[in-house]
Amino acid sequence: MKSENKVLIFDTTLRDGEQSPGASLNQAEKLQIAHSLARLGVDIIEAGFPYSSQGDFEAVKQIAQEVKGSIICGLARANKADIEKAAQSLEPAEKKRIHTFIGTSDIHLEHKLKLTKKQCLEKAVEMVKFAKSFTEDIEFSPEDAGRSNPQFLFEILQAVIEAGATTVNIPDTVGYITPFEFGSLIKSIKQNVPNINSAIISVHCHNDLGLATANSLAALSHGARQVECTINGLGERAGNCALEEIVMILKTREKHFGLYSQINTVEIARTSHLVSNLTGFAVQKNKAIVGANAFAHESGIHQDGVLKNKSTYEIIDPEQVGFKTNRLPLGPRSGKHALKSRLAELGYQLETQELDSAYIKFKELADKKKQVSDKDLISIVDEKQRESVTETFFALERLQVACGSGLPTASVELKDLKTNTSLKTSALGTGPVDAVYQAIKELVNIPNELIEFSVQSITEGIDAQGEVTIRIKHQNKIYNGHAANTDILVASAKAYLNAVNKLCAHLERIPVIQGQIVEEV
Ligand code: KIV
Ligand code: ZN
């Protein structure tokens, strides 16, 4: 297909996605997701907002250093300090982009920026020129474009393109616009901005009314050629356009739209799973493309149809997005070689040492469960992934819980890995999980508030592993924790420790972080 029909995929999971309350990621987690996005083949990775914190600055810098293939982008408000910081963090990147933005709607100009339209336009032009002194590839966003005066939008777009912007992004910041309106807006930009062909039109849609994907598609139909999106639709408030949805619409309805992306779609399921695992945001079961039920057929009529011919009720082959159809489970007698090849089929290539420790976990699980499914294997790899991106301060050594009609009591033994000592205590709670958490909290001795706790079963059956996700809060910062085990109290304790370890890592780095923050954004 012609290159003018190519749609650039700009992923902002690490920037807008990470702005979802409670989704915050540490540097190692961001790096792991960035590598996964590069494998997925996204054209541009928006790696963060470098000025917002020293942590974000360092994460963008490390991604710029280590992740190859995609353009690495940093966000900056339209001011010199933000742009300089973005440029500094992007310095090591093979291919870099600075994305600068300023509010253009009357609401933003009047209430947030206190600028006239003329001042706003001058600032935008000056800052695009300034950004251009660091890199050729400049993206400009008129924030809240969806509610901006179209005439002013045409003027500012013309001016920033003249100043050197190579991409102009049209954000529906508050998710207010509808597909018909958004398509018309893009069409009118094409008609009224004389130099529009010197830039790529991008769109950035939020999902407040559930229209982010539909709006992005409408824009593509009228000439936009870049979509900003996130894995699993993460993002501020109701989230952003979901990458997996826009990509699979273009692929499944290629004849209809005549457009294509270069995404390696078989990597979608794995990337979605990684993002969910590290952010602690479970994917809703009926989520399009990546939900657990997206390819399940429940009713007899549908099952009968699919058995006769898949096309009766299936528009996408699950393997196209990287879901493997159920194979025979492994069991206690399966060897390391069988584990290695099954993991490879699932897309996980483990190094010898990783495989050895995964095999130990696999054997423990197989002894308890007898049948270890693909989902169980993925949960073993998830745990290894979490361990590799979280420094361990405290590890669970022993847990004993007594509950029933009396007061639930938990006895916990932790290993403090920094001092190499054993810590023990017992605590009462309103229930067994509460008792476990009271005991751990006493041993860790850092005040924190449990703000979310959820359990999901990984597979069906009474012997299934329970997957616990929790969020704790310390001084207004939220840390997530995640763990799976056939015993949900052990999973609960480990999930809590996973969050506590992230909190400890953050506290250890705080002197550096505080010394560097210029202004909280
Ligand atoms: O939603 C928005 O307007 C943004 C901009 C920074 C592009 O995220
Ligand atoms: Zn946004």
What share of the residues lie within helices?
40-55%
Quick one: CATH superfamily of the largest domain? Aldolase class I
Computed Rg: 25 Å
CATH architecture descriptor text of the largest domain: Alpha-Beta Barrel
Shape, please? globular
Briefly note the structural class of the backbone: alpha/beta
Low-confidence stretches: 511-521
Strand sequence of the main sheet, in spatial order?
1-2-3-4-5-6-7-8
Quaternary organisation: single chain
CATH class of the largest domain: Alpha Beta
The set of bound ligands, ions and cofactors reads:
3-methyl-2-oxobutanoic acid, zinc ion
- Tell me the domain tally: 3
Number of helices: 17
* Beta-strand residue fraction: 15-25%
For the terminal residues, how far apart are their CA atoms? Answer: 42 Å
Q: What number is the mean pLDDT?
A: 93
CATH topology of the largest domain: TIM Barrel
Largest sheet report: 8 strands, parallel, barrel
Secondary structure: number of strands:
14
Set out the fold topology.
Blueprint: E1 8-11, H1 27-40, E2 44-48, H2 54-66, E3 71-77, H3 80-90, E4 96-103, H4 106-113, H5 117-132, E5 138-143, H6 150-163, E6 167-172, H7 179-192, E7 200-205, H8 212-221, E8 226-229, H9 243-252, H10 254-257, H11 268-279, H12 300-308, H13 336-345, H14 352-369, H15 374-389, E9 394-402, E10 409-416, E11 421-428, H16 432-444, E12 449-457, E13 466-474, E14 477-485, H17 488-516
Parallel strand pairs: 1-2, 1-8, 2-3, 3-4, 4-5, 5-6, 6-7, 7-8
Antiparallel strand pairs: 9-10, 10-11, 12-13, 13-14
Helix pairs in contact: 1-2, 1-11, 2-3, 5-6, 7-8, 14-15, 16-17
The chain binds 3-methyl-2-oxobutanoic acid and zinc ion.
The site of zinc ion has 6 residues, from loops.
